[in-house]
């Protein structure tokens, strides 16, 4: 069943081109409009909502953090993202004008389920993004957008995450379309770019040997830092989470702009630092991230830089350079996360850990 792979997780990482393509399938009608047939909430209702609140846990929460950038940028609707475990305990402000979006691969996570029950008691509309047909969370939601990743067996989520990102982008674009914020050509251009992502992910997978070599080299690291800005920040958080849960290495993700507000004190020649650089065209952000890399390098850290192919300024400050295909900023997480998944999988393999069943973890967390 692992089809020649050593772990389900590795197989699932390699299934991402298909999983992403399947989640995008059939989204454009013959009038060039984005269709989300399964979203059984009327356009009128979607035009009335004045706030989006995303609730999720773990990796799914990080997908939600990425979604906030896309949804706010495309729709201008304020969007909050909250850990499901925190949500109902702070008496959150939700009402019938709030669209609550819940993201759960398994559809059974207790914290997330409790959060949506609370939201529905306040009469909010709830949309679930879920990978499991008929699971409890989609059953208890007003509507559901299924990701088509296929079963995810490895405890650590990989294709679950990338397909959640796709579903979030689709939802954001659909809201923009329904509310007249984006029109045919723009939607078609963004969908066209999404449709090129499976091939781009495949390219990263085909050229992943340097990432695997790096994992072997860094097997003795005791702590690893991940830095990113904008949508690269949630990717940094996800890279750190994968490393913690699989390789049992202390890892932290930070917003690169926060470096000088504290984390830089950790930097030394013992600390590998991964940095996700925004694509060119986002030069203000990109320049700042590149100077952050120079700062950590000046303190002796090994810098592993993920940046757009041909970004020579990023390459100049990199101890190791991981090339990402050209993509617009909002979609970059779909690509940038892939080498980080592989790195964690490989490092855990090198250390002799059980990648599919990390210690102390369960695939679905059905208690609060
Ligand atoms: C990390 C991971 C977990 C899950 C989290 C939510 O690799 O898999 O952090 O993302 O437990 O699970 P779902 O998405 O099933 O609600």
TrEMBL record:
Catalytic residues at: 363 (for fru-6p isomerization activity)
Q: Where is the SIS domain positioned along the sequence?
A: 42-181, 214-358
Could you say which residues form the signal peptide? none
Transferase listed as a keyword? yes
Q: Which reaction does it catalyse?
A: D-fructose 6-phosphate + L-glutamine = D-glucosamine 6-phosphate + L-glutamate
* Keyword flag Transferase: yes
Query: According to its UniProt record, where is this protein located?
Result: Cytoplasm
Q: Which residues form a coiled coil?
A: none
Which EC class does it fall in?
transferase
Q: What is its EC number?
A: 2.6.1.16
Write the record's keywords in alphabetical order, separated by commas.
Answer: Aminotransferase, Cytoplasm, Glutamine amidotransferase, Repeat, Transferase
Can you state the subunit structure given in the record?
Homodimer.
Q: So what does this one do?
A: Catalyzes the first step in hexosamine metabolism, converting fructose-6P into glucosamine-6P using glutamine as a nitrogen source.
- Write down what this protein is called: Glutamine--fructose-6-phosphate aminotransferase [isomerizing]
* Organism classification: Bacteria, Bacillati, Actinomycetota, Actinomycetes, Propionibacteriales
| Full-sequence portion shown in this chain | 243 to 610 of 610
């Amino acid at each position: 069943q692992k089809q020649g792979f050593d772990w389900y997780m590795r197989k699932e990482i390699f299934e991402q081109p298909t999983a992403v393509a399947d989640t995008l399938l059939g989204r454009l009608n013959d009038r060039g409009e984005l269709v989300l047939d399964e979203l059984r909430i009327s356009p009128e209702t979607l035009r009335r909502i004045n706030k989006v609140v995303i609730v999720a846990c773990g990796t799914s929460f990080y997908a939600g953090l990425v979604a906030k950038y896309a949804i706010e940028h495309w729709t201008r609707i304020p969007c909050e993202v909250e850990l499901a475990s925190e949500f109902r305990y702070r008496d959150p402000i939700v009402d019938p004008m709030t669209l609550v979006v819940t993201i759960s691969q398994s559809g059974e996570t207790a914290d997330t389920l409790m959060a949506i029950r609370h939201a529905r008691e306040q009469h909010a509309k709830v949309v679930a993004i879920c990978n499991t047909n008929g699971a409890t969370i989609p059953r208890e939601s007003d509507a559901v957008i299924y990701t088509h990743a296929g079963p995810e067996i490895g405890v650590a989520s990989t294709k679950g995450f990338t397909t959640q990102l796709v579903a979030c982008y689709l939802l954001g674009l659909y809201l923009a379309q329904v509310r007249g914020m984006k029109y045919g050509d723009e939607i078609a251009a963004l969908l066209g770019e999404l449709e090129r992502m499976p091939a781009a992910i495949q390219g990263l997978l085909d050229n992943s040997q340097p990432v695997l070599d790096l994992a072997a080299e860094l097997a003795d690291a005791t702590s690893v830092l991940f830095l990113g800005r904008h949508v690269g920040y949630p990717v940094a958080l996800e890279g750190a989470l994968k490393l913690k849960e699989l390789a049992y290495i202390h890892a932290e993700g930070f917003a690169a702009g926060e470096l000088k507000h504290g984390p830089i004190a950790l930097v030394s020649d013992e600390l590998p630092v991964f940095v996700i650089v925004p694509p060119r065209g986002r030069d203000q952000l990109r320049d700042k991230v590149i100077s952050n890399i120079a700062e950590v390098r000046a303190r002796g850290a090994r810098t592993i830089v993920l940046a757009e192919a041909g970004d020579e300024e990023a390459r100049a400050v990199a101890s190791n350079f991981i090339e990402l295909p050209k993509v617009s900023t909002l979609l970059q997480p779909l690509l940038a996360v892939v080498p980080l998944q592989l790195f964690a999988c490989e490092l855990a393999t090198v250390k002799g850990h059980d990648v599919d069943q990390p210690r102390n973890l369960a695939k679905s967390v059905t208690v609060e």
